[in-house]
Amino acid sequence: MAIAKAERLMNLALCLLGTRRPLSKRELRGSIEAYLEAGSDDSFNRMFERDKDDLRELGLVIETVENLDGDTGYLARRDSNRLPPITLDAEEAAALGLAAKVWQQARLAGAASGALQKLRAAGMPEAEDAYEVHSALEPRIPVHEAAFEPLMLACRDRRPVTFDYRKANSAAPAQRQVEPWTLECWRGHWYLAGWDRGRGAERVFRLSRITGKVRSRAGAFTAEVPDVVTVRETVESWAGETATRTARIRLRAGSGYPLRSRAISVHERGDGWDELEIPYGHGLDAWLVEFGPDVVVEEPADLRADVVDRLRAVAKD
Predict the structure, then answer these.
(1) Alpha helices in 132-255 (DSSP H)
(2) CA distance 232 to 238
(3) Does residue 281 surpass a pLDDT of 50?
(4) DSSP 134
(5) d(CA 291, CA 272)
(6) HSE-up (13 A, CA, CB side) for residue 280
(7) Residue 1 has pLDDT above 50, yes or no
(8) Low-confidence winner among 57-66, 90-99, 209-218, 249-258 (lowest mean pLDDT)
(9) Are 300 and 278 within 8 A, CB to CB?
């Protein structure tokens, strides 16, 4: 079945690329054997529309033209489907190879590998890969959340979605209706930025807190997509990156490396705990809760109260 579909797509692409004038559905059906074997007009129409969408997904630019008689025709102009010469030096080729390795755990792995193969076939220089043999370290972007793939496709296709989302201080998840804008990885976690229809405002969601399936919804976006989506700046402000205050916490010895890496000062108490001074901004309480019993907030009192409230909400579940 896969071979038959690939052959059908190839034949359709050759027909559209080889014509000098738009071809109607009737002409395409008479030129491609698989379409001739379609049982009915409805079956052919469904097959043709799927094939046309698949070719466009693969990058073929297909034009739809209406002639003087009102019939719709299709063609793929060669000048619209021809890339200009691509020239890369060894350093640029090395950067592309490294970027492709980063996506080995995600859906983009196949697309990245295929793109590299095409560029190499076109003459892209083979660059020495410092990560290939001589190092035990290899850059990766972790993609463990099941929500990543459907959200990535929804961002690309501009499709609204719904999902159940559990906030750090909530005992149960709540459904969100979101117009997804972009995904971004920060400090090992993936975040989605988009327009929350229920709240009528921009929101950022951590993918690890999405429960259940992400479901697509029909219809267009209701809010304008900004030119620049500052996911990282929003998350940083929640995590206290832009804080002007400080907090004093106790951290169990040998734990909480992310907190230690951001600490202004660290004092070893000698009783199995260390005392840290860290930046304090909006959302720090939600981050501290993730470290569970390894963290105790000493001051300020309002941060301590917020952490306790969040822990109690989680304990009730």
Answers:
(1) 148-157, 231-238
(2) 10
(3) yes
(4) S
(5) 16
(6) 18
(7) no
(8) 90-99
(9) no
- Tell how far CA 12 is from the center of its chain: 31
User: How many residues appear in the chain?
Assistant: 317
Average pLDDT for 216-222? 88
Count of helices and strands (H, E) across the chain: 11, 12
* Residue 248 phi, psi (nearest 5): -115, 125
Q: Which of 230, 160, 236, 171 is nearest to 198 (CA)?
A: 160
Only one residue has tokens 């002639």, namely: 67
Strand order in the sheet with 295-299: 265-268, 273-280, 245-252, 295-299
Are 288 and 249 spatial neighbours (Cβ–Cβ below 8 Å)?
yes
Helix segments in the chain, DSSP class H: 2-18, 25-31, 33-36, 41-57, 90-102, 108-121, 148-157, 231-238, 257-262, 284-289, 301-316
Q: What are residue 232's DSSP bridge partners?
A: none
> Where does the pLDDT of residue 133 fall: very low under 50, low under 70, confident under 90, or very high at 90 and above?
very low
Residue 278 burial (10 A CB sphere; 0-12, 13-18, 19+) = buried
291-to-21, 166, 230, 247, 260 alpha-carbon distances in Å: 65, 17, 26, 16, 12
**Residues in CB range of 242: below 8 A, 6 or more apart:** 236, 281
Tokens of 101: 């390795």
Quick one: which of 30, 36, 27 has its CA closest to 72? Answer: 27
- For 210, counting Cβ atoms within 10 Å of its Cβ (0-12 exposed, 13-18 middle, 19+ buried), the class is buried
Q: Is the pLDDT of residue 249 over 90?
A: yes
Determine the pLDDT at residue 106. 56
CA atoms within 13 A on the CB side of 46: 5
State phi, psi for 69 to the nearest 5 degrees.
-85, -5
Higher pLDDT, 8 or 95: 8
Contact in structure between 35 and 41 (CB atoms under 8 Å): no
The whole-model pTM stands at 0.48
Q: Which two tokens stand for residue 309?
A: 């409230």
